[in-house]
Design a protein that fits this description.
The protein is mainly α. The radius of gyration is 26 Å and the shape is elongated. The protein is built from seven helices and no strands.
């Protein structure tokens, strides 16, 4: 599929979305009634303003993170509630890639924020990761990067998690024992009895 095919597919999906009944199209329909401006033009204007805001606006980080979080969160909940397992896997894959990306971004934010148009590119990246196509970013990144790295280090990570959970359980048991014993009593000594 060439670039023209991708753009045609996006246009078709956008037109299909604008003809469906949902919160966005209801809102656009009301605005269309009051202003006389077609829904399609309103949608293109909203997308253009969002893009400009991501490039020049204050708080572009918040807007970009909302775009990368709100839509996937909504469809993740719908996937959980549906009987189909395929959509669960799709959104779990997105969240794994989103988490890896966020972790990498956390450690490199000092450098990344200096790049012009960073939030516009980040938003495009997140949109690519959640795109409803077979070649979306989350599928590609998961299969080419995350999964091979996970499979290479799975045993070591499992051992480390097992050791940490054992240590955490032991620490919790010690804290519980000390909490029941109180500050002036030794573990195992009943209330009212004094040590001889």
């Amino acid at each position: 599929m060439g670039l023209l095919g991708v753009l045609t597919s996006i246009k078709d999906r956008a037109e299909k979305f604008l003809n469906e009944k949902n919160v966005v199209t209801d809102f656009l329909g009301k605005v269309e009634e009051k202003t006389g401006i077609k829904k399609k033009v309103l949608a293109v204007g909203a997308v253009s303003l969002t893009g400009l805001y991501l490039v020049y606006g204050y708080g572009a980080s918040l807007l970009c993170n909302l775009i990368g979080f709100a839509y996937p969160a909504y469809y993740s909940i719908k996937a959980i509630e549906s009987p189909c397992k395929e959509d669960d896997t799709k959104w779990l894959t997105y969240w794994v890639v989103y988490g890896v990306f966020s972790l990498g971004e956390f450690f490199s934010d000092i450098f990344l924020y200096w790049f012009p148009f960073y939030y516009a590119f980040k938003c495009l990246f997140l949109l690519w990761c959640m795109a409803p196509v077979s070649w979306n970013g989350s599928q590609i990144i998961y299969n080419k990067v995350v999964r091979p790295a996970f499979l290479r280090h799975e045993a070591a990570v499992d051992n480390m998690v097992s050791d940490l959970s054992g240590k955490a359980m032991s620490a919790a048991e010690n804290l519980t024992r000390e909490g029941r014993a109180g500050p002036n009593r030794k573990p195992g000594l009943k209330k009212g009895l004094k040590e001889s």
